[in-house]
Amino acid sequence: MQRIVYLQQIGDFNESILLRLKNQLIGEFKEFDISFEIVKDEIPLEESDYDSTRRQYNATSILNKIAYHLQEKQYFRILGILNEDIFSGSLNFVFGLAMNPNVKILSFPIAALISITRLREDFYRRPTNNALFELRVLKEAIHELGHTFRLKHCNNYCIMKFSNSLRDTDNKPKKFCESCHNKLKSYLNHLE
Ligand SMILES: [Zn+2]
Ligand SMILES: [Zn+2]
């Protein structure tokens, strides 16, 4: 059975970002026999997920919504992508969030979410850098998907290193270190 990760657009933004991400993810996960597809219909952003005091969206609530929305589909994994600033719990902001695969609820698919808002140089009033932006989107996507494959944060030179700031994201590679790579391989091998 081929494992397909579905990329789910949430809210409005240029679809080419998703296409580029998909093609890059295919390359990065080829050796794991995981493929990627874009879900045709986007999920709209809802006011109930917006915190007007913080002026941010609630990542946890959106994450649950994606899983709920897609519960009938037999998706292996879903990665939601949105172009809005998100927060989670007590954190001021998060680049992304993932469900814990150990607590899979009923038939809900395991989902992860990334926000591309803070990955743009423009957000920090610096000149646009598209190549850098795309690389950051790819890194955040791989990192959150890594969590859905049961990988924890890692202190090696590794994509699973925790990013507290954009500099952390820029300083880590887009690859799994040897240890995480092996854990991922064995996790996927033991899935039914
Ligand atoms: Zn993480
Ligand atoms: Zn690692």
Explain what this protein looks like in three dimensions:
Helix content is 33%, strand content 21%. The mean pLDDT is 92. With 192 residues, it is of the alpha/beta class. β6 and β7 form a beta hairpin. It is built from 5 helices and 9 strands; from the N terminus they run βαβββαβββββααα. It starts with a strand and ends with a helix. The chain has a 5-stranded mixed beta sheet with strand order 2-1-5-9-8, sandwiched between helices. A 4-stranded mixed beta sheet has the order 3-4-6-7. It has one domain: Collagenase (Catalytic Domain). α1 crosses α3.
Topology of this structure?
Layout: E1 3-10, H1 16-29, E2 34-38, E3 50-51, E4 56-58, H2 59-69, E5 77-82, E6 86-88, E7 91-94, E8 96-98, E9 110-115, H3 130-148, H4 166-171, H5 178-190
Parallel strand pairs: 1-2, 1-5, 4-6, 5-9
Antiparallel strand pairs: 3-4, 6-7, 8-9
Helix pairs in contact: 1-3
